[in-house]
Structure formats: C-alpha cells, structure tokens
Amino acid sequence: MYQYSVSEWLFFFYFYCFFGWVFESTFVSVKSRRFVNRGFMRGPFLPIYGSGAIMMLLVSMPFQDNIFLTYIAGCIGATILELVTGIAMESLFKVRYWDYSNQRFNYKGHICLSSTIAWGFLTILMTGFVHRGVEKVVFAIPSIVVSVVTIIVTEYIVVDFTLSFKAAMDLRDILIGLEKAKEEMVRIQKRLDVLIAVANDDFAARKQERSVRIDELMDNIEEKFSAFKERIKGNPSEFVEEVREEIMELRSRYSVEKEHRLQFRRLRGHYQRSQLKGNPSMYSKRFEEALEELKRTVNEKRNKR
C-alpha cells in the first residue's frame, strides 16, 4: 500500500497542509470572532499538519491489518514528531507555537498524554477513512496535472517558508533586544539607587525584590532622574562633579535603551506581524513580557484601522 510517486507524496503533503490550515483557521477564527490566518507561514498551509499526516501514513504501513498496532504506532510517531518540532522551534525562535503546560501529564509543555491518546485515534481515522477518499480523488487527476500543480505549489511554499523563517528569526531578535533593553534599565536603576543612598536623598531607594514590568521600571527611573534634576538645580554644590557626570552618563544610556525599545516595538515587517496575529496563543517563558508587549502593539494597530 502507499506506492506513490514523489509528486504524489508531495501532493498529499501539501493537501494536508492546506486542510490543516482550513481546520485551524476556522476553529480559531470562530473562537476569536474574527478571521485569523493561522500558522507559521503567511500562505494557507500548516506544515505541521502535512508532516503529521505523512508520518501517520508511514508509521502505520506495516500494521494495516492490525488496528491496535496502528493506534500504538500513531501515538508514538505523532508524539515524537510533536516533541521534536516543539523543542526545535522553541530553541530556534525562543517562543512556543503551542503549549500543554496547563494539561495533566505533560512533558515540558511540548507534549501531553491527552494529545498522545488523540493522535492514535486520528491515525486510525486518517489511514482507515480520510486518506482513502483523498487517494481516490488524486488518482482521478491526470498525473501530469498533479506534477505541474506540485511544482507550482513547491515554488510558492519555498518562498513563503523562507520569508516566514526569516520573520521568525527577526522576531526572536526583537524579543532578545527588548529583554536586553530592560536588563540595561534595571542596571541603570540599581546604580541610581546607590547614588541615592550615598547622597542620603529624601526619597528612599527602592529595592527590586520582585520582577517589575518594563513600564513600571521606566516610570521609576524617570522619577529618580527628575528628583536628581530638581535636587541638583536647587543645590548644585550638594553633588560632586563626578556624581553629576555619572548621572548624565546614566541618563544618556537610559535614553539610548528607551529608543531601542521603541524601535523594536515598531515591527515594520509584515511577516512578523502576521505571525503574531496568526498565533495568538504563542508563548515564551523567558520573554513573556516582551512577547505580550509585541502582541499589544499589533492589536493596537489593528484596532486603529
């Protein structure tokens, strides 16, 4: 069974990529009450569905006459695919496109028992019913047509995937940049706290015992710079020249990081915005605040339209 040519295998892969996109986009759009172009790529294809479908066909090939072994093969194969894909994507892009952390019996949020069980049943459904109908339709199409369509779609997907991959890498760099800007602001605030303590200022230095949001951090820094400015203006001799120069240097560093943050938030890339719009459940443990900030930026721009 499954004696297909290369063009036919590719055609099946693209078909299930498209079918997965239709299914997920419809589900998420209904849930969100607005159209959501779901997925990693800009076009109407979800490679994870195509990969999953082809994997189900391949792992079940030796067990076509045994439904139980087909189920087990589907559970194992799909779970491995989901785990490897999830780890690879998070390692590359620093975000998760799905997360099972809120599910019981999950492994690092990449896979969980309930999805593994579901994959087995989907493999039976796929190999026993769905693919047989798809196979008949494809076999009814002239082979030359299948080959031409496959070539055209391949060229399109290569271009789309390349642009989407670059956008995902750019988005990763933006998240890293936003986090570095915050870390630099934290260092600036800590140095300001030291200067405040040394100067015995009237306002207390605030210890950062907890992780604060970037907006709170910036407000706190601005407040301290304003207090220093008023204090120096009222009594210039209170601070030695070295302290005044260091405050000016900290202010300059802060302005640079503030501008960096604004630049990162602009998200000029269309593909970058599309990935955020198409993956509302995108999650990053390390860059959670930066990612949420980018999501708010995209939503604000959409609402203004």
Write the SSE topology:
Blueprint: H1 6-32, H2 47-60, H3 67-93, E1 106-107, E2 111-112, H4 113-140, H5 143-198, H6 214-234, H7 241-265, H8 270-278, H9 288-304
Antiparallel strand pairs: 1-2
Helix pairs in contact: 1-2, 1-5, 2-3, 3-4, 5-6, 5-7, 5-8
Overview in brief:
With 305 residues, the chain is an all-alpha fold. It contains nine helices and two strands, in the order H-H-H-E-E-H-H-H-H-H-H.
Question: What labels describe this entry?
Answer:
305 residues; 2 domains; two-stranded antiparallel ribbon; 9 helices; 2 strands
Would you give an account of this structure?
The chain has 305 residues and is mainly alpha-helical. The protein has two domains: 6-141, no CATH class; 171-282, no CATH class. Helix content is 73%, strand content 1%. The protein is built from nine helices and two strands. A two-stranded antiparallel sheet has the order 1-2. Strand 1 (106-107) and strand 2 form a beta hairpin. Helix 1 crosses helix 2 (47-60) and helix 5 packs across helix 8. The longest helix has 56 residues, at 143-198. The chain is elongated. Residues 201-205 have low confidence and may be disordered. InterPro entries: CmpB_TMEM229 (IPR010540). This is ABC transporter permease. The chain crosses the membrane at residues 6-23, 44-63, 69-89, 110-131, 137-159. Keywords: Membrane, Transmembrane, Transmembrane helix. Pfam families: ABC_trans_CmpB (PF06541).
Indicate the proportion of strand residues. Answer: under 5%
Annotation, overall tally of beta strands: 2
Helix content: over 70%
Q: List segments where confidence is low: pLDDT < 50 over at least 5 consecutive residues.
A: 201-205
Which sequence of SSEs, written as H and E, runs from N to C?
HHHEEHHHHHH
Strand arrangement, largest sheet? 1-2
What is the arithmetic mean of pLDDT? 85
Characterize the biggest β-sheet: 2 strands, antiparallel
Helix/strand class: mainly alpha
Number of domains: 2
Q: Give the helix tally.
A: 9
**How far apart lie the N and C ends?**
52 Å
Keywords: Membrane, Transmembrane, Transmembrane helix
Organism: Parablautia intestinalis
Protein name: ABC transporter permease
Pfam families: ABC_trans_CmpB
